[in-house]
Amino acid sequence: MFATHPWAQNEQGLEPSGSGSSIRGTWYWNRYPGLMCDTESYIYVALLEETGYMSRNKYASGSEIQADGTGWQRRRQMNFNAFTCNEEPLPSLNKVDDGWTRMPSFSVLIGGPQSLQPDYIERIKTVDMVRHAKIREGAHDIVQSAVSADLLTPWYPGWCKRPCFHDDYLSAFNLPNVELVEIRHQGISHCTAKGLVVNHVEYELDAIILSTG
């Protein structure tokens, strides 16, 4: 949508084609309860200046995304890019100041000027280890079961998977009707009429939700 905007401004002929009939991309069509965009809406939502629209929240909710909605947005985007790419020197002010911009190790994945330095990955590993240590400590502080807390903590560098900055879900593992089942090594073997079989143990379930991301 954003790429075709200049064409539309010049009154060039366009014929959009797609299964969706509205803008906002993937987030528009996700309809699960509690949906929120995980990137700051002031830099993620396109054409704010051109449309005169201002997102109500820093991280737009599903209801807002599904509704219709020179300079400042681009400057904010460039500031965001500087921190996520871990540029040197960094701007004096972190305008977005969220999990992405406070994670310099993410620059290993998306690249940046420093990525060309031979020892960059080794240097950033040290920074990433400090960040991961705080995440592990946080999980053990909230989750009462040490075994579950260990399974919920990352064992890989921060740039290996999409980071998750929202940890309110951790307290759910303390509920009596919630059990965390480890499937890292053997996985789910098969389904039965009652549920799923993991590590030769059948877990009876009322419903199976396939959350594939």
UniProtKB/TrEMBL annotation:
Superkingdom as given in the UniProt entry: Eukaryota
Which residue stretches does the UniProt record annotate as biased composition, category Polar residues?
7-21
Q: Does the keyword Glycoprotein apply?
A: no
* SUPFAM superfamilies named in the record: FAD/NAD(P)-binding domain
List cofactor names only. Answer: FAD
Which UniProt keywords are listed?
FAD, Flavoprotein, NADP, Oxidoreductase
Matching entries from InterPro entries are given as: FAD-binding_Monooxygenases, FAD/NAD-bd_sf
Stretches for region Disordered: 1-21
Task: State the Gene3D superfamilies in the record.
Answer: FAD/NAD(P)-binding domain
Write out the pathway annotation from the protein's UniProt entry: Secondary metabolite biosynthesis; terpenoid biosynthesis
| Protein family (similarity comment) | Belongs to the FAD-binding monooxygenase family.
Return the protein name. FAD/NAD(P)-binding domain-containing protein
Annotated organism of origin:
Aspergillus cavernicola
